[in-house]
Amino acid sequence: MSATPRYRFAPSPTGYFHVGGARTALYNWILALQTGGTFVLRIEDTDESRNHPQWTEGILDALEWIGISRTDPHFEGPYFQSANAAAHVGAAERLYAEGRAYYCDLTTEQIQERAKASGRPGYDGHSRDRGLGPGPGRVLRFRVPEGTTVVRDEVRGDVAFEHATIEDFVLLRGNGSPVFLLANVVDDVAQRISHVVRAEEHLPNAPKQQMLWEALGERPPSWAHVPVLVNEARKKLSKRRDKVAMEQYREEGIVAPAMVNYLMTLGWAPGGDTEIVPFARIVEEFRLGSVNHSSAFFDVTKLGAFNAEYLRAMSTDEFVAACGPWLAPPRATWDPARFDAATFRAMAPLVQTRVQSLGEVPAMVGFMFADAPELDEASVTKTFGAPWAAALLGELRGTLASCEWRADALKGEVERAGERHGQKLGKAQAPLRVAVTGRTVGPPLFETLELLGREAVLRRVDALWDRVARA
RNA sequence: GGCCCCAUCGUCUAGUGGCCUAGGACACCACCCUCUCAAGGUGGCGGCACGGGUUCGAAUCCCGUUGGGGCUGCCA
Questions:
Q1: What is the reported pTM?
Q2: Does the interface ipTM go beyond 0.85?
């Protein structure tokens, strides 16, 4: 009887949740779901002082957002690596007692000098047979045995590493604290992790960790190293250069299912001719063996396209609900007292096909909830550069004051006014649009006018007329 | 420098020796629709890095070259 698979996801608490991390979290989660296994969350930092509770909450919150819930039966954790320090040291001491590790008193500078002198970079195994015992400033190094380690990787196949190319790496620092490599393995053993699915950048660590598993008398886990996410320069995504925080995309109004779906198309593709697929189908179809081997560019434009599609697929009610957080301070800049939910509800279908992210919504409807629109000067200049524009706007003042106040009737009036100036509706609507909304682009005008009401519209037309008539 | 990984349109990918005259998606362009902008519809542009093999047959297998990336810490 074999135990159910246990997948571990081990982000480091850095204050934000990396999109690349989100993808590997998703891989682990999906695998756990498929196998009835467990998703084990471990917050990895050997130094407890760097484990800030709010960062852990941030990670938990971001995971929840993409559907990985700590209350789900498949979820286990969070565990804290730093809480297990005693076990890490204990394992190291065991390896020392068994002769699989040895102490070394060389400083980093001394190692570099020796490397320079010999022409071979890295640590040369100087203290291997010096029989040093533990002591302040002395590090414990793993005695890499002779031979070869083959890492069986579920996405890459077998990868062989000659031990001769792997230096005797550090297990315990000069101050006695364990390093990540060791802590990671000891925790994996303790938590009975059976599958390690992580980013490719860890592949060079895999043989070292596998040796550690074996030295500890354990059977190594199944490995899978998935390709890294890169920027346009094809460099690994970094916080400094790139927009990598999940929190930021969420704040901008990217919707979770779109983010999840997009992330899953990086390095993998569902069957069929469409990439937009429900999560259930991804869970059904995903296979580690079909994950791509090469790095993938995180394309924000395509993410936006996915998001727009998800937004459009919502019902009006769903869309209105999703917009909620963006319609109030601090995201919305209008006076909350002026916001009218019914008006927004009526506008919603009009804006739904016109935004890529929820973050664009306030700017699109803001003119509805203000005394006067924010005039975009470029729009004013462009529109009223035409000689007939001001005159047409002037005529509309009278028409609008008395005509029937319905979208189709308003449209007819503007159409007729345009004809008098030899302008088709496409051109003729521009002056009115700028007067009312402040810009040349926006939601359909006549529905908007109807919603806004005669009084407000007239006020805005008068205001702009005063200005352009004088010019 | 050493070790390792990778290589299909600009980008993400489908492709596991014949179904490939290489399919889809994003982006881009054109047209249609249209009150602006979108959305939608139709069409278009555009790729197997290169060179050798293996094979009746190669995007697919092998070798090499070139190019890219990762690792190379007493960070994780």
A1: 0.95
A2: yes
